[in-house]
Amino acid sequence: MQSTATIDPVLASRFDEARAASRVLGTRPTAVKDAALGAIADALLAHEPAILAANEQDIAAGRANGLGDGLLDRLTLTSQRVAALADAVRDVVRLEDPVGESVRGRRLPNGIRIEQVRVPLGVVGAIYEARPNVTVDIAALAIKSGNAVVLRGGSAAEHTNHVLVGVLREGLGAAGLPEGAVQIVDDFGRDGARAMMHARGRIDVLIPRGSAGLIETVVSESTVPVIETGAGVVHMFLDESAPLERAVELVHNAKVQRPSVCNALETVLVHRSAADRLLPAVLDRLLAAGVTVRGDEAVQAVRPEVLPATDDDYATEHMALEISARVVDDLDQALEHIDRFSTRHTEAIVTEDLASAERFLAEVDAAAVMVNTSTRFTDGGEFGFGAEVGISTQKLHARGPMGLPELTSTKWLVRGDGQVRG
Amino acid sequence: MQSTATIDPVLASRFDEARAASRVLGTRPTAVKDAALGAIADALLAHEPAILAANEQDIAAGRANGLGDGLLDRLTLTSQRVAALADAVRDVVRLEDPVGESVRGRRLPNGIRIEQVRVPLGVVGAIYEARPNVTVDIAALAIKSGNAVVLRGGSAAEHTNHVLVGVLREGLGAAGLPEGAVQIVDDFGRDGARAMMHARGRIDVLIPRGSAGLIETVVSESTVPVIETGAGVVHMFLDESAPLERAVELVHNAKVQRPSVCNALETVLVHRSAADRLLPAVLDRLLAAGVTVRGDEAVQAVRPEVLPATDDDYATEHMALEISARVVDDLDQALEHIDRFSTRHTEAIVTEDLASAERFLAEVDAAAVMVNTSTRFTDGGEFGFGAEVGISTQKLHARGPMGLPELTSTKWLVRGDGQVRG
């Protein structure tokens, strides 16, 4: 069903162009799509000066507009980062093409043969903010999986994205694929995003990447199916049996190694029986790394630097060097806390007790449930998927890190020789 | 994220009860869930008199309210149909439990073991109209797959559904499972459906089953993820090489065998070179079965009974003994017509030409694409899935007939021994 909502004719024609291109891309063999990706990687390196110049413009505008340091860092491209983008595209070339994969099949008792095969979704929409690398990552994954993309990358990266889209199209054209497979609507500002959210029948799926606010807006407003990504209020529970050094290192790594991402730790829960043994060293390591710690009274009693924690703190994804901490009576109370505050992204337990580990794995409801590892491993690259479309925190279609198969649908091929139903 | 929309507290408590029950069901072994299903089948037979008495009330009210024959037929239960419902529940017992199935897994280079396993979705909402069999079918599939259900079955079947929900709960209780796993909101009328559509975070997925209008309302209004089911504007293309008898039988079976369902044929397209050879017998067989035929001029010229067809006719799912027919120049024009009017449910070609068959399979974008069979085979039962949740016409999560695995999500279990990310 195509939505009957009115839409700007220029935007409609871009969406239609993407749809037409998707029909071509959807039937082209892997070798042709790989050739386009190779050409895109080459073009990224060849056009580095233009990319960096456009990026300078965006950075200058961002500084003038008072963009925060975190956003400025995400916005910034360097020679190294452009090379990394080209490498990421070449990594996608090496990934297996999911299109045409036979998922399952059988011969029915009446002789009909049914086979479910992977097909592209069609047109994938991405709405994100100030991360030009997403422009290239998502387009490369979409092209490999036979999809067209409509991008809305946010005004902060408008100049950079404009140049990157040109590079993507140059690569498509070089391989004889339709350049219309990559569309961008940044020039329409918020209206572009709004049109995408109401382009039911024109866009097959929307992937928002960014702040919780952005995702919530897309989820509430969109009539196009959405894959919810991102927000991670991530917990680590230090069980009674957690070894001291392991607990200290895992909490530190999960919080500090890259605090601005969704799989970074936000709350550490400590078993009351292990609090005296574990908390001093855990807190000292965090405080030494410059982390602001907020905790309940039991945690505050351990170190004077610990500020009081509220329920709001427990519900917050800080994306910064800030952490909440709480002492819980037992595994049950840890599970209750997680159930209440989790965004169902990644949850971890540190334990040496088999029963605790298995209960945690079975009962915690999240995209990734971990035993004795840093939560930073919930990642398409770490999982071996190559570049990542995002980390789905919803339960439908895809859950957890999304790679190429998550950008496909299926269809049933049914072959008979005249069977009728009785 | 849980929606902040206000909700009637009685409805909220039913949704919460379903959520709490889903946590229990989600971790119970197959044997316990099967025991509940067995008890439900027994209870259906034991309570047949009460079920039929309630159904009589609904039928009488339906007649008084001028319900159409098709709806009255779907609403009606008989002793035989109740027995068939019980049999359908026992069929679900025999199906494999998808929960816990390991979908994929590997050991990462750093020694971490990742494994993706199937888990229940949680709370499944179903919105449907005047089909009490759906109440039992969906609840049985949900229970087997570890999900709770919230049902909105429509005022026309309110008395029947009330008794059926009692039977379902009795079966759950007999097996020691929480009766709250089956909730119904029929007593809230349209407000019940509306609350379900805004119960984001409380209901994990909504499945609308019924008219195109019902589905469109749910799709547009719901902030809960929806699996779109149903509407089928189904085509059959008779290629130049289609054998006469096969073409006649397949068109007749696809249209006439059960015209009120979504996989029934709505439009027959005939290759111009084969029109003189095929159309007279195809039309005669349809007309003899009482089918109203609307066609373009070429079809009208064959038999005087053929009425003129408009684009509206080509876009209509009749669900009755009515069909549209059109002569097309070639396979390309057939593909164009299908692309324009298809609801992407089921599309078929009748041909003896290998290249035509393969092109049709590759290029038609639909949940099921068929060669030389009746379109009536797009069906969970026929595909071997047991009872059917519906036929998804969307591309995300599930496409085509949905069985038990389509009522599950996955989660990643991640086991390490202290790995940190560098």
Report what the structure shows.
The structure is a homodimer of 422-residue chains. Chain A has helices spanning 9-25, 30-46, 48-64, 69-75, 79-94, 132-144, 158-174, 189-197, 212-221, 244-256, 272-288, 297-300, 311-314, 331-341, 354-363, and strands spanning 102-107, 113-120, 123-128, 148-152, 182-184, 205-209, 234-238, 265-271, 292-295, 307-308, 322-328, 346-350, 368-373, 390-392, 400-402, 408-419. Chain A has two domains: 9-229 and 389-414, Aldehyde Dehydrogenase, Chain A, domain 1, CATH 3.40.605.10; 234-377, Aldehyde Dehydrogenase, Chain A, domain 2, CATH 3.40.309. Chain A is an alpha/beta fold. In chain A, helix 2 (30-46) packs across helix 7 (158-174) and helix 5 (79-94) packs parallel to helix 6. The model of chain A has no long low-confidence stretch (mean pLDDT 94). In chain A, the strands form four sheets. The first copy, chain A, has a seven-stranded parallel β-sheet, sandwiched between helices. Chain A has a four-stranded parallel β-sheet with strand order 5-4-3-6, sandwiched between helices. In chain A, strands 1-2-16 form a three-stranded antiparallel β-sheet, with no helix packed on it. Chain A is built from 15 helices and 16 strands. Chain A is globular. Chains A and B meet through strand 2, helix 9, helix 10, helix 15 and strand 13 of A and strand 2, helix 9, helix 10, helix 15 and strand 13 of B. Strand 13 of chain A pairs parallel with strand 16 of chain B, so a sheet runs across the interface. Chains A, B: One of its GO terms (cellular component) is cytoplasm.
